[in-house]
Amino acid sequence: MTNIAILGLGSMGSALAHCLIKAGHNVAVWNRTPGKSDAFTNLGARAAKTPDEAIAVSDFAIVCVKSHAQTVKIISDLTISIQGKMICDMSTGDTKDAEALVKILSAQGARYMLGMINAYPSGIGTDDATILTVGSAGSWLAYGPIIQTLAGRSACIGREPSALAAMFAGLFSVRQGFMFGMIYGAIVCEKAGVPMQVFSDQIPASLKLVHDYYGLFERSVPTERFANAEASMKVYALAQEDALKTFQSLDAPSEFMQLMYDNTKAAWDDGHGDQELTALVKTMAN
Fold it and tell me: Considering only the top CATH level, what class is 3-158?
């Protein structure tokens, strides 16, 4: 079994520690508030008094604090050598902070891995959870199986921190887009006097279409096959225009629908009206 350190025992860090202890690894834990470590010593983990102590007894150290910037502070304050150690930061932050962390780790001879957890703490240890990683050469080969113990659908997507930041932004946009769609939809229905329970009860029926949208995306975007559309971009533009007029007539916030319509109509005007709506991936990027 691997010697692993978990630094940071918030909700997610605790879930990671529980999962790795259950899997039989030798786990050392550290938290800025010492009392949080007690529950893990009862499960067989070693409670470290400092980050130095936790990392010293580990081959693979996972940091799960609030931000990459906090991880930089933890690493900068270490008094031990981390030459040859694998440091995996599962904190959040932008590309600039991630690149600063990688630079510090590399300068000290450590190998690095950055992880983006796409799950709630309750999902850690399940087959459907995902942790996407980037890392130095050989990092996934050496420690990928441990990451997949934490989240069964995990994968390495490259070496550069910017790839992970882009994946976070992209997948966050998908989730937030759906949430904001429900929010804007609720507002326009409320303006028209539709009871919120009635609107809420109808959302599951729309989920079937969301699944179909993913199928269209999966078939068309990776292959760039946008021709022979069953429902073309101009069909969507006309439907978006009708919806936009409804938002406006009810004095409901319309900027979300306006954004969709403006981009779809612009692509139609540029000669892409007969293509799949997913062709916007190309037209908007250009």
Answer: alpha beta
Model confidence pLDDT, tens digit, residues 206-263: 998 999 999 999 999 999 999 999 999 999 999 999 999 999 999 999 999 999 999 9
Is 90 exceeded by the pLDDT of residue 195? Answer: yes
From the list 71, 62, 52, 67, the residue with the least C-alpha distance to 25 is 62
Q: Are 224 and 282 in contact (CB under 8 A)?
A: yes
Separation CA 124–CA 241 (nearest Å): 43
Q: What's the average model confidence in pLDDT over 79-88? A: 97
Tokens of 113: 């891995």
Length reported for the chain: 286
Residues 270 and 263: beta-carbon distance below 8 Å: no
Q: What is the pTM assigned to this prediction?
A: 0.76
Matching residue, tokens 């860090």: 13
Which of these CATH numbers, 1.10.1040.10, 3.40.50.1820, 2.60.40.420, 1.50.40.10, describes 164-285? 1.10.1040.10
- For residue 168 the two structure tokens come to 């976070």
In the chain, how long is the greatest CA-to-CA distance?
A: 66
For the residues 143-158, what does the mean pLDDT come to? 96
Residue 158: DSSP 8-state: -
- C-beta separation of 75 from 107 below 8 A: no
Contact (CB, 8 A) for 76 and 100: no
Helix axes 11-22, 139-150, angle to 10 degrees: 100
Across the strands, what pairs with 175?
none
